[in-house]
UniProtKB/TrEMBL annotation:
The lineage of its organism: Bacteria, Pseudomonadati, Pseudomonadota, Gammaproteobacteria, Pseudomonadales. GO terms for cellular component: cytosol. It holds the Pfam family Zn_ribbon_NUD. A divalent metal cation 3 binds at E190, E194, E235. mRNA decapping enzyme that specifically removes the nicotinamide adenine dinucleotide (NAD) cap from a subset of mRNAs by hydrolyzing the diphosphate linkage to produce nicotinamide mononucleotide (NMN) and 5' monophosphate mRNA. The NAD-cap is present at the 5'-end of some mRNAs and stabilizes RNA against 5'-processing. Has preference for mRNAs with a 5'-end purine. Catalyzes the hydrolysis of a broad range of dinucleotide pyrophosphates. The gene is nudC. Belongs to the Nudix hydrolase family. NudC subfamily. This is NAD-capped RNA hydrolase NudC. Zn(2+) binds at C114, C117, C132, C135. A motif (Nudix box) lies at residues 175-196. Keywords: Hydrolase, Magnesium, Manganese, Metal-binding, NAD, Zinc. Binds 1 zinc ion per subunit. Divalent metal cations. Mg(2+) or Mn(2+). Its cofactor is Zn(2+); Mg(2+); Mn(2+). Substrate binds at R84, E127, Y140, Q208, C209, W210, P211, F212, P213, H214, S215, A257.
Length: 282
């Protein structure tokens, strides 16, 4: 029998009593020996420097809230862990929950004041929105569309590394869409900007919410058309063609970048195709 989904999003009433909360600051999420969820009633007694609290959903059927802090605090028996640390851990359900919580926390922190008049904004009951009564302006969580693409040339794949990457790791090319630009146009432009080559036969492969801090990654495969690799200064530290039989260190398996690479390798070898992160049956 298929088990119920562990994590589902919902807008919950913050005036309700009980439930669990995750605690977020600019240092990540608070954790103790039992994990990242704390009883809300216990947290209320800790006098935390709270900016706001938001009901975000249910985990194993239990209501979950995120508490947004002005600054990190030290509580006995707890420590702070970044979202990337949770991404590299084993529990995909926990990462999905915290990824959503991080996005809501970032949005709440960035929309405490109206972007039009500067007055304090209020949470809208039963809706994921912040409201300025003076401007009649509502602000919703931001989602930034971006493309990520694996470029291939037969038995070779084009991989690059940014100065921000973990040392030695190579990945696919990626970039944010510009206003008025289609996802396919974004692929062509970003590839040209980052490595100075042209691509063809662009095919959409899937998407992934990427909560660093609020991207929607649209994944593509494209074939090499023409040009020589010229890495973009200050953006691309190195870019090369790699044989599929001799690959460098690759991104984490939970990322859509790794999915695009593994998908191509599986198709070339006849192996079973990987599952897009977040799409496995619960």
């Amino acid at each position: 029998m298929t088990r119920p989904r562990r994590w589902t999003t919902a807008v919950l009433d913050t005036q309700a009593a009980g439930g669990w909360a995750v605690v977020h600051s600019d240092q990540g999420f608070l954790r103790d020996g039992n994990g990242v969820m704390f009883p809300r009633e216990w947290l209320k007694r800790q006098a935390l420097p709270l900016i706001s609290e938001h009901g975000i959903g249910h985990f194993d059927g239990e209501p979950v809230y995120v508490q947004v802090l002005r600054h990190p605090v030290e509580l006995e028996g707890t420590s702070w862990h970044t979202l990337r640390q949770f991404m590299l851990a084993d529990d995909a359900d926990v990462f999905q929950k915290l990824g959503y919580a991080a996005q809501i926390s970032t949005w709440a922190r960035e929309h405490r004041f109206c972007g039009s008049c500067g007055q304090p904004m209020q949470q809208v009951p039963r809706e994921r929105a912040m409201y300025c009564k003076d401007c009649d302006l509502r602000s919703y969580p931001r989602i930034s569309p971006s493309m990520i693409v694996l470029i291939t040339r037969g038995d070779e794949v084009l991989l690059a590394r940014s100065p921000r990457f973990v040392p030695g790791v190579y990945s696919t090319l990626a970039g944010f869409a510009e206003p008025g630009e289609s996802a396919e146009d974004c692929v062509r432009r970003e590839v040209m900007e980052e490595v100075q080559i042209k691509v063809k036969n662009i095919q959409y492969k899937g998407s992934q919410c990427w909560p660093f801090p609020h991207s929607m990654m649209l994944g593509f495969h494209a074939e090499y058309d023409s040009g020589e690799i010229v890495p973009q200064a200050d953006e691309i530290e190195d870019a090369q063609w790699f044989s599929i039989h001799d690959m460098p260190p690759l991104p984490a398996s939970r990322s859509i970048a790794r999915y695009l690479i593994d998908l191509y390798l599986a198709q070339k070898s006849g192996a079973a195709e990987p599952v897009l992160p977040g799409q496995a049956d619960g």
